[in-house]
């Protein structure tokens, strides 16, 4: 069968003599696919500030970062008011990640903490499926025991290699079954308990079963970080930089020179938020005023949180909610 298509000057076209109105289909690249392309098609370091709620995520996006990281420590502190001791569960983490990932469908891809996977293989599989449906671009899953703690605290304990790989296999099988591009990041916290060589052994095994990226948590020196990149090359590695944590300060330039592909700053927003809130409330307690800088009013916060977009939607839809301004 022959199909004849004729394009006319007015932009309309004919298919076998029948006039058709042109249509345009817009395709939004899933965040997971976007992150995967960034890893495969560029050599740049993907810098992801740690965000813990909608406001911190909105601010990070307004500054122009190409990726975001939802911190488990920040999620636990902000949503539960608790220390990062494995208290946040799948519902807490997935709900927070979903909100952040969907603030802007065209925005930077979100990598999210998935702790230990919240249980055995069936729970790991459930967690992966929920993260995929939430729009998360990548996640890391670790080898700590279920009663885990922040990666930059002392006293961490890890499960056996077999149990660790069971978690990773469950994650890999699930994402493959769902045909998802979500980036699987294998994290090991074995450095404190078993030393560097065991970390490399675990990460090589994770790489061999199909993890996309590796993460050795809590480097104790820059030399150790550089060595890990060399020992696992060309597999991409993620560096978690927690200032004043277990790892000495490594800048983004140093990390890029070492060969890391992703760099997350887990406490990038929650630590200054703590400091700013503490200073402000002490000022209110002692001086009777908050002391907000001139020009920083409610509208500034709302503008960062999408006020302009809200006005545009209402106005272009024929609404009158903002005819008198804001």
Structure characterization notes:
With 326 residues, the chain is an alpha/beta fold. The chain is 44% helix and 13% strand. It contains 13 helices and 11 strands. The chain has helices spanning 31-41, 54-63, 72-80, 90-101, 121-134, 161-177, 191-194, 196-208, 222-232, 252-258, 270-287, 298-304, 307-316, and strands at residues 5-7, 13-15, 18-20, 46-51, 68-70, 110-113, 138-141, 183-188, 213-216, 238-240, 262-265. The radius of gyration is 23 Å and the shape is globular. One of its GO terms (molecular function) is methylisocitrate lyase activity.
Contiguous low-pLDDT stretches (5 residues minimum) are none
Q: What's the β-strand tally?
A: 11
Largest sheet: 8 strands, parallel
Whole-angstrom Rg? 23 Å
Question: What order do the helices and strands follow?
Answer: EEEHEHEHHEHEHEHHEHEHEHHH
Shape: globular
Q: Which structural class should the secondary elements be placed in?
A: alpha/beta
How much of the sequence is in beta strands? 5-15%
Strand order of the largest sheet: 9-8-7-6-5-4-11-10
In which range does the helix fraction lie? 40-55%
What's the end-to-end separation, in Å? 60 Å
How many H/I helices? 13
Give the overall average pLDDT. Answer: 92
Protein name: Pyruvate/Phosphoenolpyruvate kinase
Pfam families: PEP_mutase (PF13714)
Keywords: Kinase, Pyruvate, Transferase
Family: Belongs to the isocitrate lyase/PEP mutase superfamily.
């Amino acid at each position: 069968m022959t199909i004849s298509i004729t394009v006319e000057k007015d932009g309309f076209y004919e298919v076998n003599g029948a006039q058709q109105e042109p249509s345009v289909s817009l395709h939004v690249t899933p965040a997971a696919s976007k992150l995967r392309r960034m890893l495969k098609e560029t050599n740049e370091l993907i810098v992801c500030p740690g965000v813990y709620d909608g406001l911190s995520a909105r601010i990070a996006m307004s500054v122009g970062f190409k990726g975001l990281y939802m911190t488990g420590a920040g999620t636990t502190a902000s949503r539960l008011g608790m220390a990062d001791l494995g208290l946040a569960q799948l519902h807490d983490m997935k709900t927070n990640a979903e909100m952040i990932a969907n603030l802007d469908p065209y925005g930077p891809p979100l990598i999210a903490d998935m702790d230990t996977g919240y249980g055995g293989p069936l729970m790991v599989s459930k967690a992966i499926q929920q993260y995929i449906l939430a729009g998360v671009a990548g996640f890391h899953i670790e080898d700590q025991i279920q009663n885990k703690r922040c990666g930059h605290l002392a006293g961490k304990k890890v499960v056996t290699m077999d149990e660790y790989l069971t978690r990773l296999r469950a994650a890999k099988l699930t994402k493959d079954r769902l045909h998802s591009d979500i980036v699987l990041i294998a994290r090991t916290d074995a450095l404190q308990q078993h030393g560097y060589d065991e970390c490399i052994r675990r990460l090589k095994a994770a790489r061999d079963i199909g993890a996309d990226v590796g993460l050795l948590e809590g480097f104790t020196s820059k030399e150790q970080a550089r060595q890990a990149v060399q020992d696992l090359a060309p597999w991409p590695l993620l560096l978690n930089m927690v200032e004043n944590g277990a790892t000495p300060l490594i800048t983004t330039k140093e990390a890029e020179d070492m060969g890391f592909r992703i760099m997350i700053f887990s406490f990038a927003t929650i630590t200054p938020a703590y400091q700013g809130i503490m200073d402000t409330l002490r000022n209110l307690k002692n001086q009777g005023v908050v002391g907000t800088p001139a020009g920083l009013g409610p509208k500034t916060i709302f503008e960062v949180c999408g006020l302009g977009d809200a006005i545009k939607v209402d106005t272009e839809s024929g609404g009158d909610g903002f005819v008198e301004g804001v």
